[in-house]
Amino acid sequence: MVKISQKLIQIQRVALVQIAKTYKTVSSEALQVLTGLVPLDLVADKEVIKFNLFNRGIPINIKDKEYSFQDFDLVNKLDLLPWEKGGISWSMDSDPNGRFKKIFTDGSKLNGRVGSGIVCLREARDIIWKLEIRLNDEASVFIAEAVAIQMAVEKVGPTKEKIVIFSDSKSVLMALESNKNHSEVIMKLRKILLVNPQIKLNWVSAHIGIYGNELAGLSAKNAATKEEVDIKVKIPSPGLKISSS
């Protein structure tokens, strides 16, 4: 294995010298720092671990915690039905202070813990209900934002009433709109929204003093401090980070 690692570093070194446009006497470690590229032997180690995990079912350990392939988001986009591939539209037109029922959602990561916050308002400041949901620590803020919208839609249930869900996460809204994002959370949320067309999504700018948005942000932070995990979501496999020893 040592010889293979050395050979991979030698192969990579040829390209790194050309990329960095430096002297051949510069060390491989310095070239990797200059170019910002990961050592090729570590990349190979990571791919072996991922192959063993996803193709052979061999569990891995990350930060002293064991994970199986079932813990990761492995949606096969080829399994999607044609009508499940459409995107969900959103706007920036609704007034976050309007006199209609509205829901504000947010996600937060605090001290390594992740939470989703949802607040439903009537008129401008009357709180109808709110939810504070802690996710497993492996979840990202992106996932927490998406779960917050999902929980809001599920809480409302089938209704003919006009409801606007406000989110300050453009990345989640754009993922819902795109037909290229096939993560389990986004796909599930798309399906729910497709059968609830009366529920509209609206982007709202963060940190500009909007009351409902601030409440949702506070709820998300509160959720992240809870002792018990309420919902366990799967880990996006492209974001799998493995340290090679």
TrEMBL record:
GO molecular function: nucleic acid binding; RNA-DNA hybrid ribonuclease activity
Species assigned in the record: Araneus ventricosus (Orbweaver spider)
Organism taxonomic ancestry: Eukaryota, Metazoa, Ecdysozoa, Arthropoda, Chelicerata
The protein's name: RNase H type-1 domain-containing protein
RNase H type-1 domain boundaries: 97-225
Gene3D superfamilies to which the protein is assigned, alphabetical: Ribonuclease H-like superfamily/Ribonuclease H
